[in-house]
UniProtKB/TrEMBL annotation:
PANTHER family: PROTEIN KINASE PRKA, PROTEIN PRKA. GO terms for molecular function: protein kinase activity. This is Magnesium chelatase. It comes from the Bacteria. It comes from Micromonospora musae.
Length: 497
């Protein structure tokens, strides 16, 4: 699983030593293979060498990927079923990496026809006429992947093609393939074509794919064009859409060789690995904060208040991590500006001022996530108006679980003693690290806490403040400290009065 990224738009330049004519291609000993043979051979080669078969895919090593590999080895077209945010599109796009880096094509062919296996009458005529002098082009594997998001307005012309009236006006006949403006599927010939959210495709449009999957030919406007397409067809679908909002017609389901179910990360560590890999963090986010967010996402998925049929995307935890990092960066910038203002400099924050408060996320920064990310969660009917309240409760649950998992067995009496005499500790979004640490002072057991949190022997003040705030919040959630939120948004920890 992972974040979906668009294919690289830069077209690579073929190496100069590749054959440039059909004669040179034959002399080089090139052998024609279908796309599925190519995928099978390259997958087996990676298996034998131990190379990574699906780079960037996290959490599927023992479940989904073996099924995908068996489908590819069998030469099956496949459909991936899973809730949103399970990395289906990312996995589909990764299949293109199993294609040969470069493959020969008849120069100028719209259908990427192989010089040793021309499809259209025009290309066969060119090969017969030019012989070994036929110009050969080279297609990079990044250009052999096609994709269409299924929408209700998708037409047969978009996918398969339609008659071009201009070419008819030029004198060509309807039975001539040259009169056809080919759609996305035939233009991805000798590659991989993906249909995302297949159930959203109108049933009459799904019918147009039947011949593509079985007979491997296409029909346009009632004219059957015997063009044996060479491609791997892959589709994705949400099981909820599969059964309710739309459906995959039975004949089309029957033509897919493999139906593979995807899932969310099974283990907490896999959820964390996915966040680390995919989140674009603008500030440091300590491991214990990432763990809180990972547990939070898992807790939301398991909540009875959340619609399980919709799922909670992996993008939820990724966006949460990016949000708390942004909150830390905002705090650092505002504190630097405030410091500059109080010093009377009259200047902006500047690099030196920004560095005065390092941008390190704290557990309190996660509070904003409950409001900014509620749109990513589908709640059960009857929970209207309670969305933020529910998410806030689940966030507290995740924080308490992380606190117990990370700091179980440690003597934290030094922290509770801080407020034993009525003293309070104030923190919050705009409370600087130095201010928080000054209030705490020297706390017995702090070094062991920071070590447990993975901050090493010499944590920065901002890291130490993040650790202190985590302990204070954990002690509050386990009913050993009191907590109050002021009108200004600051958090005050004190004794349980």
């Amino acid at each position: 699983m992972g974040r979906v990224t668009a294919p690289n738009p830069v077209i690579p330049v073929p190496p100069a030593d590749l054959p440039r004519t059909l004669g040179e291609l034959r002399a080089a000993g090139h052998r024609y293979r279908t796309v599925k043979q190519e995928l099978r051979d390259n997958l087996i080669a990676r298996m034998r060498t131990g190379a990574d078969r699906f780079p960037g895919i996290v959490g599927y090593e023992d479940t989904v990927l073996p099924e995908v590999e068996r489908a590819l080895l069998a030469g099956h077209d496949l459909v991936l079923l899973g809730e949103r945010g399970q990395g289906k599109t990312r996995l589909i796009r990764s299949l293109a990496a199993l294609l040969d880096e470069w493959t020969p094509v008849i120069a100028g062919s719209v259908l990427n026809e192989h010089p040793l296996h021309p499809l259209t009458p025009a290309s066969r005529a060119r090969v017969a006429e030019a012989g070994d002098d036929l110009p050969v082009g080279w297609l990079h594997r990044s250009m052999r992947y096609g994709e269409k998001l299924a929408t209700p307005d998708t037409s047969v012309g978009d996918l398969i093609g339609d008659v071009d009236p201009i070419r008819i006006a030029e004198g060509r006949t309807l039975g001539d393939p040259e009169t056809i403006h080919f759609g996305l599927v035939p233009r991805t010939n000798r590659g991989i074509f993906a249909v995302n959210e297949l159930p959203d495709l109108a049933e009459r449009i799904q019918v147009a794919l039947l011949n593509v999957l079985e007979e491997r030919d296409i029909q346009v406007r009632g004219y059957q064009l015997r063009l044996p397409l060479d491609l791997l067809l892959v589709a994705s679908a949400n099981p909820e859409d599969y059964t309710n909002r739309g459906r995959i017609i039975t004949p089309l389901k029957d033509r897919f060789g493999a139906e593979i179910r995807t899932h969310y990360p099974v283990e907490l560590e896999l959820e964390l690995a996915l966040i680390r890999q995919e989140a674009d963090l603008v500030a440091e986010v300590p491991e214990h904060v990432l763990e809180v967010l990972a547990r939070f996402a898992r807790t939301v998925r398991e909540s009875p208040s959340v619609d399980p049929r919709s799922g909670v995307s992996a993008r939820f935890a990724i966006a949460a991590a990016e949000t708390v990092a942004a909150a830390a960066l905002r705090r650092a910038a505002l504190l630097a500006a405030d410091s500059a203002s109080r010093s009377g400099s009259g200047s902006g924050p500047g690099d030196e001022a920004v560095r005065a408060e390092a941008a390190v996320a704290r557990v309190g920064d996660a509070v904003s996530v409950t409001s900014t990310l509620r749109g990513k969660v589908e709640f059960e009917s009857g929970e209207e108006g309670r969305e933020v309240e529910i998410l806030a409760h689940l966030l507290r649950t995740a924080t308490a679980e992380t606190f117990r998992a990370r700091l179980a067995g440690l003597d934290l009496s030094g922290f509770t003693d801080l407020v034993a005499e009525g003293t309070v500790i104030e923190t919050g979004e705009l409370v600087g690290s130095a201010d928080l640490l000054r209030q705490v002072g020297t706390v017995p057991g702090l070094a062991k806490v920071l070590d447990r949190l993975g901050m090493g022997d010499a944590p920065t003040p901002a890291e130490a403040a993040a650790g202190v705030e985590f302990v204070l919040e954990g002690l509050h959630l386990t009913r050993r400290l009191g907590k109050d939120v002021t009108d200004s948004g600051r958090t005050v920890y004190g004794g349980r009065g």
